[in-house]
């Protein structure tokens, strides 16, 4: 195969819907549309409830608002290519559009991890030093934490498009997923990808890996503080305030670890399994996080029920 003509074909990539079963793609259109609608509706409801209810104007709920915005942003990053494949049967995506989507998916994924760290810090302060909770986590501090999480994500992902653009592509231009990821594009290159692989590994360790360690240490300190509380009822109350956040952590990290393990050690598995895990990692947390917080947080649940009751009376 002529290298120059092969390189010319890579003005675009071909995204994959359901591997080995392209005739099944239309069946996924409506379930995916429902998931995206549920993501926007659920996170939009959380944001609206926190905005209108003055009793929810507390640091915990401001961080939840940032998480909801990040979830929607991450979900919307995958939306264009998903719609293109499953709704319009148009799997082709231009090289620049693919790189752009890749950038935003990785930015908002890392930003969400940073937000989960900040929420762990919020719970630590609330339980360890409740009297100074509001004075420590002021509006200004919360805003700076949110900006820092996004800035960190942008800074570490910023070199990735340039690392991809320097690579020559002379293999197949068919990607493994319904959206563009760094590791997926990288494997199609016909030159050494050692720099890309090393940089990607360093980024994962210093962001998601470090974040997971900080969250673990935060909860060890929280548990130590809770065990020092004399009343069992107060212990349960303190731990209950962390339950929703723990669920959000599990929803983010468990699919990520699962997808990473399958990608590295599950070469023998069906491509459908790889695609399913990758989609769960990106689509499930934005859908389930607002449901978890609505069910587990009494103030939010009460406010949502009140809104629906008022609409029914009207």
TrEMBL record:
GO molecular function terms attached to this record: G protein-coupled receptor activity; olfactory receptor activity
Pfam families listed in its UniProt record: 7tm_4
Entry membrane topology: Multi-pass membrane protein
Domain G-protein coupled receptors family 1 profile: from-to ranges: 42-293
Subcellular location(s) of the protein: Cell membrane; Membrane
Gene3D superfamilies the record matches: Rhodopsin 7-helix transmembrane proteins
Listed transmembrane segments: 27-50, 62-87, 99-121, 141-164, 198-222, 243-266, 272-293
A single GO cellular-component term on record: plasma membrane
GO biological-process terms attached to the record: cellular response to lipid
Keywords: Cell membrane, G-protein coupled receptor, Membrane, Olfaction, Receptor, Sensory transduction, Transducer, Transmembrane, Transmembrane helix
Main subcellular location of this protein, as a coarse class: membrane
InterPro entries listed in its UniProt record: GPCR_Rhodpsn, GPCR_Rhodpsn_7TM, Olfact_rcpt, OR51/52/56-like
Family: Belongs to the G-protein coupled receptor 1 family.
Name of the protein: Olfactory receptor
